[in-house]
Amino acid sequence: MPAKLSVNLNAVAMLRNRRDLPWPSVTALGRIALAAGAHGLTVHPRPDQRHIRFSDLPDLRALIDDAFPEAEFNIEGYPTGEFLDLVERTEPEQVTLVPDDPAQATSDHGWPFERQGNFLRPIVARLKKRGMRVSLFCDPDASQREIEAARDTGADRVELYTGPYGGCHDDPAKCAIELQKLDKTAALAQAAGLGVNAGHDLTVANLPGLVRAVPNLAEVSIGHGLTADALEHGMARTVGRFLKALEG
């Protein structure tokens, strides 16, 4: 079965936030994406709300509950007290924890699981107690010890950071090297009993290579590349293109 597609709406929200106007509508475009076959929606509410606003979350939660109950809501972010309170109010199906500094433009590295396992363990337990699946952002070349430390936090999945793979779109030899790293890390995660998600700089062009390298990939979360395609092809057609690419 192909990996599921979760559409990240942060880039849509960033465009909306350029003006004090309600368009483009994050909820309306989320509805189009789900109606076109996307399996879920992803948002990353940062402390400064420069992309998704906290006020968007109840609307997106209601959209899924009322119109697409089979879809999943994935909220990602750094686990501050404010963030944890936010996800507990929203009750997403999945929470993806990332080690971002609040000032970062975007996520660009995974957790140092060995060093921060004790920090993550009670957070993971808190979220799982509320019935949420927990995924942890993971470097593409994590060692076996790091993966075992991720497992020991109690998390359900890791999300492979695919930025380096996406960044070598014009260098086939480097792409092959990055895919080997992702393949090895995914195999370690699966051997440790962890599900594997992936995200960052994924496109229609590079998805087939990824899903061939990581055949048991559970989910991809895609925002920037998908939103860029939607400007050209429209959201509904773009979702179809990405679903096709996930077939390998």
Please outline what is shown here.
The protein is α/β, with parallel strands linked by helices. The protein has helices at residues 10-16, 26-35, 56-67, 81-90, 113-129, 144-152, 163-167, 172-191, 207-213, 224-233, 235-245; strands at residues 4-8, 40-43, 72-77, 94-97, 133-138, 157-161, 195-199, 219-222.
List the helices and strands and how they pair.
Blueprint: E1 4-8, H1 10-16, H2 26-35, E2 40-43, H3 56-67, E3 72-77, H4 81-90, E4 94-97, H5 113-129, E5 133-138, H6 144-152, E6 157-161, H7 163-167, H8 172-191, E7 195-199, H9 207-213, E8 219-222, H10 224-233, H11 235-245
Parallel strand pairs: 1-2, 1-8, 2-3, 3-4, 4-5, 5-6, 6-7, 7-8
Helix pairs in contact: 2-3, 5-6, 10-11
Walkthrough of the structure:
- With 248 residues, the chain is of the alpha/beta class.
- The chain has one domain: TIM Barrel.
- The chain has helices at 10-16, 26-35, 56-67, 81-90, 113-129, 144-152, 163-167, 172-191, 207-213, 224-233, 235-245, and strands at 4-8, 40-43, 72-77, 94-97, 133-138, 157-161, 195-199, 219-222.
- The longest helix has 20 residues, at 172-191.
- It is globular and about 50 Å long.
Search tags:
single chain; eight-stranded parallel β-barrel; 8 strands; 248 residues; 16% strand; 11 helices; TIM Barrel; alpha/beta
